[in-house]
């Protein structure tokens, strides 16, 4: 099965930023909270003040809420807009964001996912993460970085995982 790629006019700008995060900066692990209701996956991320990050590319249009903080957002590398909690908006399918966190921020997305069930909240962390991987395959567009030729999201996850394992190893 071939991966569908979204290529937009300003992807190179965001791809360059993604590579900077992977190659030159200390990766930040943004805490996530995963919740489920019947037919919905809810993903909450905490982003500390001063952070700069890029979003994943979503396949679907879905709502989001900023319940805490203030953030400057550039969609697809274009002009910046500031949003402050409380704020609710709509993410359009295929958009890609650059975010600068002006003050500690909590951002929550809501995804209609028929496979989700309220009982999924009871899973142990390992089982929950396997389910989230399946859900992300449904809602997140695969994107190959135009400069590195790799999936930067996967590279970033590996770095964070290696950093966690190293911390555990060294106590």
Describe this entry's structure for a reader.
It contains three helices and seven strands, in the order αβββββββαα. It is an alpha+beta fold. The chain has one domain (11-170): Sandwich (Jelly Rolls), CATH 2.60.120. α1 (11-23) runs parallel beside α3. It starts with 10 loop residues before the first helix and ends with a helix. Residues 1-7 and 163-171 have low confidence and may be disordered.
Question: Can you identify the CATH class?
Answer: Mainly Beta
Q: Write down the CATH topology.
A: Jelly Rolls
**Uncertain residue ranges:** 1-7, 163-171
Overall number of domains = 1
CATH-level-2 architecture: Sandwich
Helix content: 25-40%
Span between termini: 42 Å
Beta-strand portion reads 25-35%
Total number of beta strands: 7
Please work out how many helical segments DSSP would assign: 3
- Largest sheet, described in full? 7 strands, antiparallel
What is the CATH superfamily label? Jelly Rolls
Mean pLDDT: 81
Radius of gyration: 16 Å
Structural class: alpha+beta
Rough outline: globular
